[in-house]
Give the backbone structure.
Amino acid sequence: MNVSELLESLYQWFAVIGVIGVVLIVLVNISYMARRFALKRLTYARHFVQTGVFEGDTVELVEEICNNSFVPLLWVDVESFLPAELALFGYERGSRPMQRFISRFTLAPYTKIRRTIKIECVRRGFYKLETVNARFLYTKIFITSKTQLYVYPKPLEQVENSPLQSDAQSLLLSERQLIQDPFSFSGIRDYRHGDSFRAINFKATAKNMALMVNTREFISVRNFMIYVDFRIKTGDAEPDAYNILMERALSWSSDLIQKAIQSGGAAGFAANCRNHLGARYTSYPMGSGYSHYSEILAEMAKIRVMAGNSMASVIANDLNTLRNAEIFIYTTDIAQDFGVCLDVLRAAGNVVSLIEMG
């Protein structure tokens, strides 16, 4: 083979290699465009089966993914990050604040897959999931997939110094033993120190030339208003001990509110803490029914264990609205100055109990 034939043969080989290279480049581009096309038409959504659960309960996270194109998608990885407080079943729990979780799907054209994941709710809180990453053959896109979950404080019955052990214990700081029904009438008696001005019977007073008051019947339904004081009396406590103490108070409050609602009564909640938006206190007025109970629990889930306003200022916001209720104030300092708040509450027919934490 002479030189010209050799050059011609090499030229032919280079031409073939060039054609093959061009074809490969075109195929790679087509593949890339097909992947991008398929991924852009991919839809993914997730949601929790329940909007809220108690601490320690399990909840199901449902994933739904759909291939809306004619391109088959093999080994699509959907990557997301979950807070460590939402522990995935079957996965080792680490010390990091977030868990990296990947769901792998194989999707034929125009196929939809639904998958359920079990999660244990380890700690109270308000958790929001925002986005995920979807990967297919080194091509990645971000998908917005928002969902949220409330983890409520677990109801915990207070055994020691329980405000519900007996009427006498629950009213340890009050002379009144029961809650009066303002719409009933059982008789007239002499005025006693601490009686409300509204209870005075003016006709009987004029007739007897002495202050006389109406007496009311008592009701068995218990209406609770609960306050939790996040300030401590001796400076800054150890963070772990402080967190445990306040979480326990929230669990006690959850139990009291549950008992009030289940008995057909009303309940409200307030605390001088920070919430997820940075406010320096949280407050939810008294109301009845399980929907109201769920709303209070959602507010409690958003609480951050950080002290905010003074307890007296939080209570002062409710002085004009609380009537004939049992008021429980959880605090580490029962000797603190509440101003005139407690006297005003008692004068309005409320039972006030200070419960020392610690």
User: Anything to note?
Assistant: The mean pLDDT is 82. Residues 3-40 form the longest helix (38 residues).
